[in-house]
Amino acid sequence: MNSATNSLEPEIASNFDAEKIRADFPILKLKIDGKPLVYLDNAASSQMPQQVIDRLVRYQTTQHANINRAVHYLSEVATMEYHNARCKLQQFVNAREDREVIFTSGTTDSINLVMHGYGRKFIKAGDEIILTTLEHHSNIVPWQMLANEKGAKIRVVPVNGKGELEVNEYEKLFNERTKFVGLIHVSNALGTINPIKHMIDFAHQHGVPVLIDGAQAAPHIVIDVQALDCDFYAFSAHKLCGPTGVGILYGKAALLESMQPFKGGGDMIASVTFEETLYNTIPHKFEAGTPPIAAAIGFGAAIDYLTAIGIEPIAAYELSLLNYATECLNDIPGLTIIGTAEEKTAVLSFTLDGIHPHDIGTILNQDGIAIRTGHHCAQPVMQRFNVPATSRASFAFYNKKTEVDALVSGIKNVQKVFL
Amino acid sequence: MHTNSLYQEVILDHNRKPRNYGKLDHANHQAVGHNPLCGDRLDITLQLENDQITDIAFQGESCAICKASASMMTAAVKGKSRLDAETLIHEFRELATGKLDTTHPHHLGRLTVFSGIRDLPTRVKCAILPWHTLHAALNSVASTSTEANHDSAHAVSSKS
Ligand SMILES: Cc1ncc(COP(=O)(O)O)c(C=O)c1O
After folding, report:
1. Residue A294 in contact with ligand 1 by CB distance below 6 A
2. What is the CATH number for A411?
3. Fewer CB under 10 Å: which end of chain A, C or N?
């Protein structure tokens, strides 16, 4: 898939009308301290186009009620729109059935659902869970909590100097105690795209289920959960031009059915007496309480917006931005790019000799440039590369080359301040 | 506020040539300060004799704001009594969080170059970390953090 994207790149990238797309995003017109906003923190959260904002307004002004509960008009409309949003997500990841898509509050919530629903039921003392050095804390901490509770063990896949997973080492970690694999699709700290298809197949040869953290992949790579054959796939709306507070967990129906619920409450039950509760069918079993209805519908609208442009053209355009930015940053003396994998999304993590990332971030902010500085919730990655923190510029399809130029002159200005 | 007014020459100078940088061999008080939000770490060693700070040093991995704050702090408290140091700690914290009324008498002197930090909430902790750590050292607390509560999840993640 990536090589196909690469070969399409020159043609699509030149046809891509970033100016027209930018007009959809009202926030991009903002001025920060009199300077035009240059928003390069898209890996943390992306911005919302007017189409999605309008959808939220339409829902809230003409369609809102609680779902699944009442027979009145608004409740029926809201229930239907919420269901439509689920179906849009189903298509987006190419799930076999809509009930395999569970709305959660985001990637973190999705992973915790799997830890509680699957992990606490099936993982026992002495079992081993494989994670990678590239994981975001949200795919580390829940498994550590489980391992501590159960007396299970976490094994970690190392990365090489370019920030690529050492797949040979991954394969060597498998044994009869291996019971689960948690794998980040795209590294938020470095942008590395991992060879997850191969890694999933390998785990399945050992009968081990695999959870993919797709928070950084879904905005940039076409996801086909059937082709990948992953057991779980998680991501958040707010990195896909949607609202905060919602995300999904895709899970294979049979697995979801075998799992215990994560949260107890309304909507997740079939019947309740004080003696016992019968749980509802999936996906409802995992959606206790009133869900983020408006946000889920906004998520659906964001998916419509992105698929109308096309994830592949988006990826090709972003790759052209990445290549340009990599070239420009490599020309800056004293700058080191961390994460130089062959397959990358448009993320540039870097350090500047003698200058702390937080000072870089604060001074760039003065020019209206928004980047992320720190450990990016991926401290094991920082430890691997022996840095306490990095500065990270992450690009979206609404960024343009002149913004890369602004970043470059901003970085040179930082160096001047500290000369 | 304009950030230029924060990265003033005084701060840049202390960042370039930090005063009292290193570790005292003969320290009788010390503490390590952490800012878990950014991974910064600061060691403070000091010699306290008859309630007077006769010598002090710091070292660590940190941003310019934190380093300059530590450098200027060590210069300011060296030779001072424990009580005077605690007064400065209190006043500096008030200054950094925008609570100090600078029109009233205070003892901060040139340390007021950090007043601009109050407009950058994400950076306030960088400036405060050295003071926090000094307070811990003076009170014989070996390790401190800008995020006071260490819950068990912290413990879990720091174990492996
Ligand atoms: C790779 C990765 N996983 C998980 C998360 C957590 O996502 P959320 O905070 O939306 O739950 C993020 C976002 O920061 C991420 O980049």
Report:
1. no
2. 3.90.1150.10
3. C
